[in-house]
Amino acid sequence: MSGSDRDSRPSDAVGDDPWAKWRKPEPPVRNAEPDEGSRRDAAAVKPEKPEKRPKSTSGDAAPARAVRVEAPVAAPPQAGDDTPSAPEGTLGVRRSATPSPRSPNKKPLRGGSSLKKPYAPKVAPAVPAVEAAWPAAAERAERPARPTSNPPVVREGPPPEGVRLSKVMSERGMCSRREADLWIERGWVFVDGERVSELGSRIDPNAEVAISKEAKFDQAKQVTVLLNKPVGYVSGQPEPGFTPAITLITPDNQLRQSGDPEFKPWMLRSLAPSGRLDIDSTGLLVLTQDGRVARKLIGDDSQVEKEYLVRVAGEMIKGGLQLLNHGLELDGQALKPARVKQLNEDQLHFILKEGKKRQIRRMCELVGLRVTGLKRVRIGRVKLGELEIGQWRFLRADESF
């Protein structure tokens, strides 16, 4: 292509040259090598035959000539010219704009989201047979597994002498174990005339134990309450959807007697039921702060009687009354002897010295009866008396179980 043809298409050359906006039009240079745009135009006008490469004498193809393309040199700016000068340096491509080479096995991501490998749990690699032959590996394989819980501590030497002081005080009916620990910590307990203030102290079970005036005064403030529990209230821990019986201990429900202390809110603190009375039963329920009362009523060796009036339905099996008095067992344990008599066709009278969960109801089921009503009327020497359903009163000083 001649120089005139190249000059006749200035717009294509400017469009392909990124430096054209800084370059001032210059006269054509005939000996300059045509640029890429001019070569495309020339190829469109007159196709050229491919150049025949000379064959090498050794039989190999002649190496292709390397073509060097140089950027056109801009003319120096003239004096008084306001055109911005072209940037200096070599024309090239920024490394930051060049995409990083992609792994040949990695496919491009679509949608702009990153692909995550599915989770696979790590599996410990198997120990090869060669490694198992090494002494260290064999030692690890034979090592026993570490126990999950600490082994019990075995103390050497003779067992400690004596009995815990709190246990002695509880067995003598002086107080509960919890109260004894509290009094010992406060220094209110004396053993053979010496003050004991260390928890866990052991003494001779036949030693003399006394308490200070402060302990007696603290014990005198503890109250015991008698309540006629209605049906629908739970005596012990509250159950979902039910109300505990202690919520009935209010000034409005109190049956006042001469000599009773004035009810105070602190009296409800540590007030707990001593004895079970299920939700479907009514009658006498004892709540106390005094550990002595609680142990006497519900202790393992308790001999306090509980009297009940029981209404039943159904037909008793032959010899059922004798079985109710003695001969039944619950949960694989024989029951203590009871005193049971039949008052009329649908009413029985029970006197027990124990109080297993729903004991009377389960005893009646074993002899073919179904309990329709149960009322406790006496505990020890304390009777329900004139207490109406939902009422309560203090245990008087002249009363005891």
Keywords:
18 strands; alpha+beta; Structural Genomics Hypothetical 15.5 Kd Protein In mrcA-pckA Intergenic Region, Chain A; 3-stranded antiparallel β-sheet; 401 residues; 18% strand; Pseudouridine synthase; single chain; disordered N terminus
Structure overview:
Strand 16 (369-379) and strand 17 form a beta hairpin. By secondary structure, the protein is of the alpha+beta class. Helix 6 crosses helix 7 (177-186). Mean pLDDT is 75; it is low at 1-13, 56-64 and 129-133. It has 11 helices and 18 strands. Strands 6, 9, 10, 11, 14, 15, 16, 17 and 18 form a 9-stranded mixed beta sheet that branches. A 3-stranded antiparallel beta sheet has the order 3-2-5. It has a two-stranded antiparallel ribbon with strand order 1-4. It starts with a helix and ends in a 7-residue tail after the last strand. Among the domains are: 163-219, Structural Genomics Hypothetical 15.5 Kd Protein In mrcA-pckA Intergenic Region, Chain A (Roll), CATH 3.10.290.10; 224-394, Pseudouridine synthase.
Summarize the structure.
With 401 residues, the chain is an alpha+beta fold. It has 11 helices and 18 strands.
**Residue windows where pLDDT falls under 50 for at least 5 positions:** 1-13, 56-64, 129-133
Number of helices: 11
Cα radius of gyration in angstroms: 52 Å
Class based on secondary structure composition and strand pairing: alpha+beta
CATH class of the domain at 224-394: Alpha Beta
In terms of quaternary structure, what is this? single chain
> In the CATH hierarchy, what is the superfamily of the domain at 224-394?
Pseudouridine synthase
Along the chain, the helix and strand elements come as HHHHHEHHEEEEHEEEEEHEHEEEEHEEE
What is the helix content?
10-25%
How many strands in all?
18
What is the 3D form? extended
Sheet-strand content, in percent, reads 15-25%
CATH architectural type of the domain at 224-394? 2-Layer Sandwich
Report the biggest beta sheet as strand number plus sense, adding barrel if it closes.
Answer: 9 strands, mixed
